[in-house]
Amino acid sequence: DCEQFVVALVRASDGFKRSTEPQEPGSNSELAPESGEEDRAIASLPTAILGPRPRRVPAGERTLSKGTLVGRYVVLDRIGAGGMGVVYSAYDPDLNRKVALKLVRPRLGPDDQVRVLREAQALARLQHPNVVTLHDVGSFEERVFLAMELVDGTTLRGWWETGERSWREVVAVFIAAGEGLVAAHDKQLVH
Fold first, then answer.
1. 20 or 16, which is more confident?
2. Which residues share a beta bridge with 10?
3. At what angle do helices 167-186 and 2-13 cross, to 10 degrees?
4. Within a 10 A sphere around the Cβ of 143, how many other Cβ atoms?
5. How many Å separate Cα 165 from the centre of its chain?
6. How far apart are alpha carbons 87 and 95 in whole angstroms?
7. What is the CA radius of gyration of the chain?
8. 75 with 88: CB under 8 angstroms?
9. Taking the model in full, what pTM does it have?
10. CA 166, CA 26: separation in Å to the nearest integer?
11. How far apart (Å, rounded) are the C-alpha atoms in residues 65 and 67?
12. What is the tens place of the pLDDT at every residue in 17-47?
């Protein structure tokens, strides 16, 4: 939820203030942590920003195996899951590239699937460096799928859990995410 994201970012930044000290040569930051507050502020980022832990595929919902064709896409591996569906890495033989393939959960009703298609149309109009590009949309076994840009790397949660982060790194990453959310909202895309 975007509101939770903004509230958590503001709370996390409570430990920072504008520095009244002269900046060191080469430094372009106007933010500096208050004495003893940096660790507390970073640790206070709630799990709501990072989202829930990855989900297992619900009972009765099959996992696609490597080589399954979804439209023209060849499934390679399952890379994640969330409330709306399961994401796979896949290969697009027509354009000779890997994509992220999001397969929307079957429990969504027809109205939900229409909403997903409308959101896909809005996402297709959105071009921003902090938002994945939508390449294609279609259906597979009465489920909607989205073929999107595959971004190498990890999730925000994975990045967060790999080790200690400076407050500057944390603020930079969350500002970049916020800029992507603003761009999405400007196109009436809400997630």
1. 16
2. none
3. 150
4. 19
5. 19
6. 20
7. 20
8. yes
9. 0.65
10. 18
11. 6
12. 333 344 454 444 444 444 455 444 445 444 4
